[in-house]
Design brief:
The complex is a heterotetramer, with two copies of chain A (about 450 residues) and two copies of chain B (about 500 residues). By secondary structure, chain A is α/β, with parallel strands linked by helices. Chain A is built from 14 helices and 13 strands. The radius of gyration of chain A is 25 Å and the shape is globular. Chain B is built from 14 helices and 15 strands. In chain B, strand 9 and strand 10 form a beta hairpin. Classes of the chains: A alpha/beta (about 450), B alpha/beta (about 500). At the A-B interface, helix 1, helix 2, helix 3, helix 4 and helix 5 of A face helix 2, helix 3, helix 4, helix 5 and helix 6 of B. Chains A, C: The glycine cleavage system is composed of four proteins: P, T, L and H. In this organism, the P 'protein' is a heterodimer of two subunits.
């Protein structure tokens, strides 16, 4: 068996050293009858056989590489430079543990420090942590953090918040029977949440751009929150947008949570992704997740360590700010590398391309009969209304070998008002040819 | 070689990507275009590559040496699994594609679920939790939902003192108070104390088995019976599943829920701290109380239930789970097969007991053997030497080893928890034992050696770091002009 | 431009330090009119665009992954463990130079030493060098080496030698008008080369198994060579065969040349591959190519260096044993890693599988009307005779999406006697299903 | 950490692969089944990974630092190129597939040929040579064939004393005698001496341009005219093409043949010593005298000519050329474009001149500038210090740098040839210059410093190695029980 280190001869010698007659003597504490069950599973296989099995499964999927592709809604197809995947596969990154021994983990620690800095910069916030599981779990942790800070319990959730984020927050709050108010679905992008804020409100969670693509200025909402002692939590699902638009920090956000997948992390059918989490410096001791901090070593040289672990479960146990332990280190590394390659100029240009192409497609689509673009202002994603149910349009597009978008009904099942709404995303990976194919296919289908 | 931060290396006028010009269109940003700069540095691709290659060279890794962290199961990560996770059609599919276009992806999830259910002897598994602690959360949510469904609100969770910190933290997140159960002198749950603590307000017990002392809870079936008799559920922390995979089915022991760290037992890489994946197997009594989404067999093949029925307790994360980790774990399982997985458990337990036997005369084992896949020592052998567990661990670094887990579990003094895993050869374990014997003897010999221990490590990119300073005035990001500690930029290039 | 290190500001500063007004001042020695020509080439492109261009070219090929595949004839499709490609891409191997500074090249040097040992072992020879370009160039170098050793000029080339090897030898010998005798094509595998050896014969070059798959005992040929003072050069194109069959060294070969591609190196349309070269210890100073040798460092610790460089061009210039400089280091590394993974048991079993499957296919094919298996004894490759020209059969199989083998006419153009001969290879990558498809398709086609 | 040989680590009973059972058939090996063991060691996959990871950690690489080897062009190797070379449908096609099934592969070759012809201004290119020296061989074979075709047997090749060793070795392989041409005081070919040597038996001149002193042969057109007037051909060694790519077309200079090291100018990785690739561009007078195979445009698309006409001089290797390198080189060219490639030449020349200017006061440049892409120094600045060029180079290692090329070219004493390449940032070059200045000053200061130079390197996995011992009694392979130098196996694990 190729992954096992011991030979039969080794095993015999080792049993002898231990002084037991056979391997099952080491399992003597296992209750009678529970040892060595018969398992109805196949025996070991070589690489070639395993590869064949996965290749067969992969073939049953339609790869975004092979068709015009316009899906987004929380997960985005972007081009990842080859250097990213090469570097994250280096043994020293891939096969190391959490950097609890900083002397031999400076590589991991320094990139986490760089990651925290990048996340702070792009969100326009003062500090960021070393990553969470994904965008939705970041949002849920943000609500808990706001509760700790404000000592209030209620959360107000925008009607433009991705339903998966909304549900993840709600599920966690349900555990302690905390109240949350989900505002009505906000397709038009004109909700006024300030009326929902009361003196029990810990925070307002709003997504920008919204799940329907609407881009909004949150400054007045931030003021309203501040006036009532609530925190403003801004969620960003498409992080490349911050290459082009005013960051939440500049609009007055207290906590920014985001899905970092767009930078460096492949779609991978939904995971693993990387949750970003940034806030104000004054709240840092209420933050969840790992933090990497700068310090010096015995010789006075700059170095990095995991810090403020008095917040964490392995030290504080039931009093921890979160139960999170494993986070998303390697995805954070991919993010850091990709962002380093982009730099200021690259991120800006990437965002301009995304937006520019989205504007182009919006213009083409809006010329189709019965099709209307929903958001006034958007980045690379927008809802459109169709003259028929979006889900069946998407299915018809599949037959034409086009993955045309996400029907809103997939995210808001049962909401009749959204039945004809389709979410369409354009990134730098879409060619003009892709767009023309979508438009032509829609023309036929509608 | 010193390596500066990217922010210190970067300069305007350089880039690591080439992008075509953006389409020339009028923007539709509604006046929200960013004003001013973000502040990100510009680096060429060669600079980025060199920076991260050099950083990597400051890390220890399994690929370069034994990594005996107890409770972490730092085993070999096969490269085949990395390759499979990147196959076109698997690594690049979108979570919201029509299900007809992702039947293969759903098949991966379904197959992995099948393996997990068979290996644990449990009827159901919730796949979406993103890590072990997230799995614990899922398990407690399922328990809470089941209790709620029978109108039985309970408020207390029992957990041994030796539990992982995630156990109490998770319980607290679900609004439970945590009540510790003491251990017996031989490192197991004290049944009498448990009986005394059980009552109608106990929602569940959270037990790790094999436990964090590296021992199998030999009374586990009794524990299960007692807990069930009290109307409570039995949550098992599966962090140490590697010791029994293929060898013992938790379902045969009376367990109601257990998370499985795919990044431990099933070898998805730790990646410097994640991502992980923590599916939770569930007993009959919990199997309906699951999070969305989940995969079912439908009339058109596999289907994805994204909005559950009344019994589902909700959603735990953005999408369907850690697909990338599922692929790796399934490839690992298929490579090993039933025969290989059983061998994994046997060899990991064999190696740990071999370490225990080989060191018991010079270090101080906390408990009689046999242990499971990790061997626990405490610091009695260092008594009066002036050398602490920490010093001992740091001295190992200078010998070329990553230290074992130290100061955990909390139930013994100055704990050292050693888990060699089944990946290591006997030669490798022998060399490790030789090193530890040498260090133990040096510590006991005292004299000048003590200073060596206290000064260790000395051969590393950095020596011991000032953690107090880091925590007292936290510097959590670089800022322009804020070189906290002096670093010579030219020398760092 | 993503690969360039200098900014515009850097360039200005550097020109100033140098003391020239502009970049072209540094090119002042270039003849007037020859500087800065207009080049009709496209401008720089991003990764995404380059990837698209290559993906489009890749799509115009039929990948062996997608069809039943039976080609060999000097290049073989084998499964390469994932660890191989991962390890050879490590920066420290991929981006290092020839190990001329041994203190910081022990990684490369040690694997070359291991490679030399593995090659010696499997060929059954005493020593091996650190690799050549490929099998054919190894064969040509072997003839030159035999000439140096024997001080004779004539080479006798077997009629079972791969025509590419034969032509490569001949081309090199032509340069100095050296005589070579190519024996007639030996389809049946019963040639007797001993009659061609005379007192001007430096060496006999024979391939085993032959290009038609015939496996032969070369012991008596070795004796005949020895009797006449000529060297026996044995060429092996399918190196995995040595997992199962008696190695050339045990049959009395003086020099063994081989194509190492089967172990660890992808098909890659014919290159880069890795030439193996092994001989007797007494001839080592006449060997071409790099050699790595064991020694000790200043502190007495074992270490490795390039050695016997007095044979090489950078020291000996026109008196060198060969002009070779760059060789096939990274492919040699892939070979070493794959061979390390296989080990004795793995190589043996791999060879057994290859042979077993080939026997299975031979049995199936021999039941087809008009089809005959040519070689009596073979490893994983054999010629078959068909009732019609093999080239057109192959084209018909392509239409059925099968890559069915190499028509002998491709290697021996114009040889009417081989027109109906097809070379068929089977490896561990072929399933029974593949074989059945080939047999069924041939049944239809013939 | 020490690392034993695989033969010392391996043991029977372990394997790094799992293979299914072989079909149960009667063998058809004609009695030639191997008797006895080969002797290969058995290692698990974790052992193999760890072994080679540890070995890699003993290597210097471009990815980790500046690699200023003159004449080697150690530039950045983009990872995109590695990815392209591995695309299914490109990396896995067989050289003898029907041409209808490899049109994309032929297109790669054809496109690359197009770029090479345009960049050099030459009408033809032979793609199959496997490396630079192989390309030289191809060029001389073409010249020999052309001479033969006109019935003009010539026996002498002229080459400057500063030529790469491959030049005379290649000429000898083709049966030519090599006649050296002296250089002028300013490092160029001495035209008078050349004229004196030219005659009816001279087949060709082999000249490197830019030459190995890092200088552009400013009289190159005159040289070409003189050579052609004598009825000989002009072979140009293209090893230093990086200095002029996109900037000067060799075809405009009167050259008849020139090889191009794709592994230098076009960045295919050096890989610890290959594989390389050395296509040869050919002038009108040589373009028919090519090796097989080659690609032509035919009526059914691209076609592969594997058996040439009478003018083809034969075959040089097993198949069509180094396809894997072609893909990488083409990806590199497409990434740079015409604008980027010109910039490559400019920046590489700029950096070398910057090094020259920055070090000329403390080291001794051999020639007046401007240089091309490499700067040549000799050891005059070390005169009477007791420090040699070798010592100086080894001291650089302890400072974290790979040394420059030393003792080449032979025409200056104790040569040090520095080629920074265009991939380096100014910060990186500045740091390198600072280090060299420091070392030069230390060497001149003498005293205790001399011992430091002579003892260098000290911070490496090995210190200076005994090359004499290696050559006197060569140990070229491991043998059972033959641990030449003592190595502690346990310590080595």
């Amino acid at each position: 068996m190729r992954y096992l280190g011991l030979t039969e001869a080794d095993r015999h010698e080792m049993l002898e050293t231990i002084g037991v007659p056979g391997i099952d003597a080491l399992f003597k504490d296992v209750p009678a009858g529970a040892l060595n069950p018969r398992l109805d599973l196949p025996p070991h296989q070589g690489e070639l056989e395993v590869e064949r099995a996965f290749a067969a499964m992969a073939k049953k999927n339609v790869s975004p590489m092979d068709v015009p592709f316009f899906l987004g809604a929380g997960a985005y197809r972007h081009h990842i430079p080859a250097a990213v995947d090469h570097l994250i596969q280096r043994s020293e990154f891939l096969t190391s543990y959490t950097p609890y021994q900083p002397e031999i983990s400076q590589g991991t620690l320094q990139y986490l420090f760089e990651f925290q800095t990048q996340v702070s910069m792009i969100t326009g916030m003062e500090v960021a942590n070393a990553s969470m599981y994904d965008g939705a779990t970041s949002a849920a942790e943000a609500v808990l953090m706001a509760q700790r800070i404000t000592k209030r319990s209620k959360a107000v959730l925008s009607g433009g918040l991705h339903p998966h984020y909304r549900d993840t927050v709600a599920t966690l709050m349900d555990q302690t029977d905390q109240p949350h108010v989900a505002a009505p679905v906000d397709l038009a992008g004109n909700e006024d949440l300030s009326t929902l804020i009361d003196d029990q409100t810990a925070c307002v969670v709003v997504q920008n751009p919204s799940v329907f693509g609407q881009l909004r200025d949150l400054t007045s909402l931030a003021r309203a929150c501040q006036a009532k002692g609530a925190l403003l939590v801004v969620a960003v699902t498409e992080i490349t947008s911050l290459g082009l638009i005013t960051p939440p920090g500049a609009m007055g956000a207290d906590i920014v949570v985001a899905e970092g997948q767009s930078i460096g992390v492949p779609l991978s059918f939904g995971g693993p992704y990387v949750g970003l989490f940034a806030t104000r410096e004054k709240y840092v001791r209420q933050m969840p997740g790992r933090l990497c901090g700068e310090t010096v070593d015995q010789d006075g040289r700059r170095g990095f360590v995991l810090t403020l672990s008095a917040r964490e479960q392995h030290i504080r146990r039931e009093k921890a700010t979160s139960n999170i332990c494993t986070n998303s280190g390697l995805c954070a590394l991919a993010f850091t590398i990709h962002m380093s390659l982009l730099g200021e100029a690259g991120l800006t240009k990437l965002a301009e391309i995304n937006h520019g192409k989205a504007v182009q497609l919006a213009e083409k689509l809006s010329q189709l009969k019965g099709v209307a673009i929903v958001p006034q202002a958007f980045y690379n994603e927008f809802a459109i209304t169709l003259p028929q149910p979006a889900a069946s349009v998407v299915e018809k597009l599949v037959e034409k070998k086009i993955l045309g978008g996400v029907p809103a009904s997939r995210l808001f099942p049962g909401d009749k008002s959204l039945e004809n709404v389709l979410l369409v995303t354009v990134t730098e990976t879409n060619t003009e040819g892709d767009m023309d194919k979508l438009v032509a296919a829609l023309k036929e289908v509608l | 070689m010193e390596e500066a931060l990217i922010f210190e290396i970067g300069e305007d006028g350089r880039t690591g990507v080439d992008l075509p010009d953006a389409p020339n269109v009028k923007d539709r940003l509604g006046g929200l275009k960013r004003q001013g700069k973000i502040g990100l540095p510009g680096l060429s691709e060669p600079q980025v590559i060199r920076h991260f290659v050099r950083l990597s060279q400051k890390n220890y890794s399994i690929d370069a040496g034994l990594y005996p962290l107890g409770s972490c199961t730092m085993k070999h990560n096969p490269r085949l699994n990395e390759k499979m996770a990147r196959l076109p059609g698997l690594g690049d599919v979108h979570p919201l594609q029509p299900v007809s276009t992702v039947q293969g992806a759903l098949e991966v999830i379904d197959q992995l679920a099948g393996w997990l259910k068979t290996l644990t002897g449990m009827p159901a598994v919730a796949m979406s939790p993103a890590a072990g602690a997230h799995g614990e959360l899922c398990g407690l949510m399922a328990i809470r939902a089941a209790l709620k469904a029978r109108g039985d609100v309970r408020k207390r969770i029992l957990a041994p003192e030796s539990a992982h910190g995630t156990n109490p933290a998770t319980a607290a997140l679900c609004g439970y108070t945590v009540d510790p159960i003491p251990a017996t002198a031989d490192g197991r749950v004290d049944l009498d104390a448990l009986q005394a603590k059980l009552g109608p307000d106990v929602a569940a017990i959270m037990l790790t088995n094999p436990n964090t002392c590296g021992l199998f809870e030999r009374d586990i079936k009794k524990v299960a019976d007692m807990v069930h008799a009290a109307g409570a559920f039995f949550y098992c922390d599966g962090a140490n599943f590697n010791a029994i995979v293929g060898k013992v089915r938790p379902g045969d022991l009376g367990i109601d829920a257990m998370h499985i760290n795919l990044h431990k037992t099933f070898s998805t890489p730790h990646g410097g701290g994640g991502p992980g994946s923590g599916p939770v197997v569930l007993s009959d009594s919990l199997k309906d109380f699951v999070p969305v989404p989940y995969v079912v067999h439908g009339k058109n093949g596999l289907e994805l239930v994204e909005n559950g029925d009344a019994k589902s307790f909700g959603r735990m994360k953005s999408f369907h789970g850690q697909m990338g980790m599922f692929i790796r774990a399934l490839a690992y399982m298929m490579s090993h097969g039933a025969d290989g997985l059983k061998r994994v458990a046997e060899d990991s337990v064999l190696s740990a007991n071999y370490v225990l036997a080989s060191l018991k005369d010079v270090m101080s084992p906390s408990f009689e053997g046999p242990c499971m896949h990790e061997a626990l020592f405490d610091d009695r052998f260092l008594k009066d030497t002036g050398v602490t567990t920490l010093d001992f661990a740091k001295a190992m670094i200078d010998e070329g080893y990553h230290p074992m887990t130290v100061y955990f579990p909390l139930v013994v003094h100055g704990a050292m928890l050693i888990e060699p895993t089944e990946s290591e050869s006997k030669d490798s374990v022998d060399a490790f034992v030789t090193t530890l014997r040498g260090l133990a003897e040096k510590a006991k010999a005292g004299g000048e050696n003590v200073a060596m221990f206290q000064a260790a490590p000395q051969l590393t990119p950095r020596r011991r770091l000032d953690e107090t300073r880091a925590a007292r005035a936290p510097v959590l990001r670089w800022k322009p002009g804020s070189n906290g500690a002096p670093i010579d930029k030219a020398a760092a290039e």
